[in-house]
Design goal:
By secondary structure, the protein is α/β, with parallel strands linked by helices. It has a single domain, classed as Rossmann fold. It contains eight helices and twelve strands. The strands form three sheets. It has an eight-stranded mixed β-sheet, with helices on both faces. A two-stranded antiparallel sheet has the order 5-6. The chain has a two-stranded parallel sheet with strand order 9-11. Helix 2 links the parallel strand 1 and strand 2. The longest helix is centred in the middle third of the chain and has 19 residues, at 125-143.
């Protein structure tokens, strides 16, 4: 009897323990917002923010983030990301290649526009959004994570989307640019991994306060030509990522996400019902283009 009672108490304590959740891209924008939202819910989460270098870690610690909640790992380093995910039971993928103006050296001016060229000086989408996300998914599976959430992007059904043209190099078409295609390849890899997943395709990200707008869901970029705005505050995307871990309705779902304008509709608060308008529909990965590795 005493053994049964002790086992019950241990099981209850384990169930009540905060979930240890890894967040990659925790030194960036959307990933950091999701990381901080979980830090503010210590009764429910014990988040581990994963940043790519010591400088990013020090910046978070200087801003009040506990050092024990930050780990350093480059997502393109498979062994490093495996070690960083040790002990975590879920993963939020907030890492992504970042477009920026290339440094002013030879060949950076676009002759067609006379403006500086844009590219990915800190890592190509092929490296970060495909190989890096594949590393994370593989590591999550090895570490026993039960749920992986990806923050991706709308537009993946259109191979000619303007985002795919950023950083593209006709001399190296395989590994330069095409960010939405490499993201889509990683999404399909996650779906086929057997892990529980949630894939969120937000519209254009804006730096506005979250919790003030009604959120709208869809699939296959249909909302791109719909009414109203196709943007969404980063903070609302971060909250949706966290809520995906809390509600059964988000398990094994892939969907698009935008917000109405502030004042148009009621701010979303019932996330358990957010996906109800989809009626079980999910994004169709036969659409668009998924490149060969």
């Amino acid at each position: 009897m005493q053994r049964l009672l002790l086992a019950s108490l241990v099981a209850a304590a384990a169930a009540a323990a905060p979930r240890r959740v890894a967040v990659t891209g925790a030194g960036g924008q959307t990933g950091q917002l999701a990381f901080r939202r979980m830090l503010a819910r210590r009764d429910e989460f014990d988040p581990i923010g994963i940043v790519r270098n010591a400088q990013r870690r020090d910046e978070l610690v200087e801003k009040g983030v506990p050092a024990d909640n930050v780990r350093v790992a480059d997502v393109t380093d498979a062994q490093a990301i495996l070690e960083a995910l040790e002990g975590c039971e879920a993963l939020l993928i907030g890492s992504s290649a970042k477009v920026a103006t290339l440094e002013f050296d030879t060949g950076v001016i676009d002759p067609a526009t006379g403006r500086p060229k844009l590219g990915f000086p800190k890592g190509q989408p092929y490296e970060v959004d495909w190989l890096g996300q594949r590393n994370q998914i593989d590591a999550a599976k090895k570490c026993g994570c039960t749920h992986v959430v990806i923050c991706s992007s709308m537009g993946g059904t259109n191979p000619d989307h303007m985002l795919n043209g950023l950083g593209r190099d006709d001399g190296d078409p395989a590994t330069k640019g095409n960010i939405l295609q490499w993201k889509r390849k990683a999404e399909q890899y996650l779906i086929e991994s057997g892990l529980t997943y949630t894939i969120i395709h937000p519209g254009g990200l804006v730096d506005k306060p979250g919790g003030c707008r009604e959120l709208v869901v869809g699939v296959d970029d249909v909302m791109v030509d719909g009414e109203g705005t196709n943007t969404i505050p980063r903070d609302d995307v971060a909250e949706t990522m966290v809520q995906a871990l809390r509600h059964e309705a988000f398990r094994n779902r892939s969907f698009d996400l935008r917000s109405k304008l502030e004042g148009d509709g009621d701010p979303t608060s019932d996330f358990a019902r957010l996906l109800a308008p989809l009626g079980g529909r999910d994004c169709d990965y036969s659409l668009g283009k998924i490149p060969d590795d």
